[in-house]
Design a protein that fits this description.
With about 170 residues, the protein is mainly alpha-helical. The protein has two domains: about 40 residues, no CATH class; about 110 residues, Cytochrome Bc1 Complex, Chain D, domain 2 (Orthogonal Bundle). Helix content is about 50%, strand content about 5%. It contains eight helices and two strands. The chain has a two-stranded antiparallel ribbon. Helix 4 crosses helix 8 and helix 6 crosses helix 8. It starts with a helix and ends with a helix.
Length: about 170
Amino acid sequence: MFDTMTMTKVVGAACGSLLVFMLGGWAADALYSTGGHGGEGEQAYTIDTGAGEVTEAAAEGPAFAELYASADVAAGEKVFSKCKACHKVDGSDGTGPHINGVVDRVKGAVAGFGYSDALLAMSSESWTPENLDGFLLSPKNYMPGTKMSFAGLPKPADRANLIAWLATQP
């Protein structure tokens, strides 16, 4: 059943398949990127995700002070549902520190909570509404090295509403 000719055919088929696979990868790589040699290639095309437009639109909107002055506390409580997984407002710590009285509280002031070095470096500052707005927009950009893994709240109105609601929590 397995004579020399059959084994030769099996090995030849495996080598041929490998060769076709490698050539397909090379062709796909050549189609996807252009450019010179030595590993320095340029993208053949880019996909516009509109990320730059969001920043421009945010810059054109009303100032945070205006949004905060007209914030909806009830809407802020709904936005807090995104924070409930890690933060509590009953005075006990969860994955994150409790956020009772966080507005205008000194950063890193909850006793017994293990803050990141990035937050401890800012412990001379307080959580003003403006600081909270910057942090809630993008925690990783506001405070590189933070332990908070939340991506952030992109809508300025949501941030203002949440901060207004947090200001009502003693």
